[in-house]
């Protein structure tokens, strides 16, 4: 007998992972900033009590790197890291076909040319596609740890060493993750974090560059503040001055980010428990194929993804799962132009710069010839069209997890 009443009738009410955690600690730390009347991180009185500095200290320690620089956004972190590493006009930077458009934009803002390569069934950069895309102009690669899943860093680092490329990890979606015991963001030459509301940890807005490299750190610092080299202790460090932006983080943002970041380990282990329980309950199913995870222990675990054999089956599965009361989505067939998928990055596809005279593809120093088209990464599009994603949450109870398991099993049994 077919049971048509949904597995779950209870509403699914889980807010963003980050802001759901807002509580007394955020309020206290923000009030502390207001009480101190000190919102500029470099304000000379009370410099040693800077919240931004505390946030950098926390990340330095947690990631285990020599330097961390807080900035005002994840995009800024990527731009500063690229410029910091000396990437610029004439250079190509390899990025995966599945990442937020900001990764591509940061490369272009640094006046370099993004080269887009396939992801594999982990939905992170396919190392073979990366190696095949290397040209004499390639200077850097940006592996992106999408949806909390670590990229295949052993392979990516090995290829990069052989070709002497700079590796900048985009950790915007994977704060708290690791790969073979190493915190994400500590493996490449630089790691870039975002503290925007939809990430695991928010600061309102914000970002962080983590690096072991003194020169990258010095150049990031100079770039993140147009007068950085000219004042205070920085003079002693003999930083080489060059034009920069204002990417500084405000103390108010840092206070929020600090309160949030102090709980990151607990948050990640709650998410891992949730995901492990669900995966245990569905991994025997032959009708679905679970996303491959390069290091399951390092998965931040807020996203459950599995594939159906065909696009049609995936659409049907997704609709049935929704009917069972479990919110989910196919990644590429959601009825809108998701800017996480390369074919929807229109200004990249059309090679449009900020103006006709400010266009990294047409600049005199660029000798390469990269081409883009909507069908250039068929494997990525195929995987994303067959993928079903369910957003997980730290507040999911065992009962909530079991609803997900029961619903997936019920729908699978009808395949
Ligand atoms: C969010 C995001 C960014 C940009 O971070 P912002 O803080 O919004 O500038 C970069 N890369 C990826 C993969 C992201 O998800």
Automatic annotation (TrEMBL):
Pfam families per the UniProt record, alphabetical: DegT_DnrJ_EryC1 (PF01041)
Cross-referenced InterPro entries: DegT/StrS_aminotransferase (IPR000653), PyrdxlP-dep_Trfase (IPR015424), PyrdxlP-dep_Trfase_major (IPR015421), PyrdxlP-dep_Trfase_small (IPR015422)
One MF term in the entry's GO annotations: transaminase activity
Keywords per UniProt: Aminotransferase, Pyridoxal phosphate, Transferase
Superkingdom, taxonomy of origin: Bacteria
PANTHER family assigned: DTDP-4-AMINO-4,6-DIDEOXYGALACTOSE TRANSAMINASE (PTHR30244:SF34), TRANSAMINASE (PTHR30244)
Identification of the protein by name: DegT/DnrJ/EryC1/StrS family aminotransferase
Organism: Paenibacillus mendelii
């Amino acid at each position: 007998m077919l049971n048509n009443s949904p597995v779950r009738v209870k509403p699914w009410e889980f807010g963003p992972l980050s802001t759901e955690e807002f509580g007394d600690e955020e309020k206290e730390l923000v009030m502390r900033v207001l009480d101190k009347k000190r919102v500029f991180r470099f304000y000379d009185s009370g410099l040693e009590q800077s919240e931004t500095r505390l946030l950098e200290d926390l990340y330095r320690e947690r990631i285990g790197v020599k330097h961390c620089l807080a900035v005002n956004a994840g995009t800024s972190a990527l731009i500063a890291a690229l410029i910091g590493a000396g990437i610029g006009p004439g250079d190509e930077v390899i990025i995966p076909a599945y990442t937020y458009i900001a990764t591509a934009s940061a490369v272009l803002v640094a006046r370099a040319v993004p080269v887009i390569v396939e992801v594999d069934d982990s939905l992170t950069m396919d190392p073979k596609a990366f190696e095949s895309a290397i040209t004499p102009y390639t200077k850097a690669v940006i592996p992106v740890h999408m949806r909390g899943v670590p990229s295949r860093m052993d392979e990516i680092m090995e290829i990069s060493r052989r070709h002497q490329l700079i590796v900048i990890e985009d950790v915007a979606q994977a704060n708290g993750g690791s790969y073979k015991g190493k915190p994400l963001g500590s493996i490449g030459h630089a790691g870039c974090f975002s503290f925007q509301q939809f990430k695991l940890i928010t600061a309102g807005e914000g970002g962080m560059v983590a690096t072991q490299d003194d020169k990258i750190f010095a150049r990031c610092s100079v770039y993140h503040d147009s007068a950085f080299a000219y004042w205070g202790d920085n003079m002693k460090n003999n930083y080489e001055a060059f034009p920069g932006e204002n990417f500084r983080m405000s103390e108010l943002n840092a206070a929020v980010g600090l309160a949030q970041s102090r709980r990151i380990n607990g948050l990640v282990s709650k998410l891992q428990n949730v995901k492990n329980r669900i995966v245990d309950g569905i991994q025997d199913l032959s009708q679905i194929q679970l996303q491959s995870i390069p290091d399951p222990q390092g998965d931040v675990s807020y996203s459950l993804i599995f594939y159906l054999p065909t696009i049609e089956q995936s659409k049907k599965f997704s609709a049935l799962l929704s009917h069972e009361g479990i919110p989910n989505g196919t990644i590429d067939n959601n009825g809108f132009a998701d800017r996480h998928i390369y074919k929807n990055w229109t200004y990249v596809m059309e090679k449009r710069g900020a103006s006709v005279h400010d266009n990294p593809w047409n600049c005199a120093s660029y000798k390469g010839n990269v081409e883009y088209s909507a069908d250039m990464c068929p494997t990525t599009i195929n995987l994303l069209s067959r993928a079903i994603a369910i957003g997980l949450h730290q507040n999911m109870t065992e009962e909530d997890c079991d609803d997900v398991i029961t619903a997936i099993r019920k729908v699978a049994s009808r395949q």
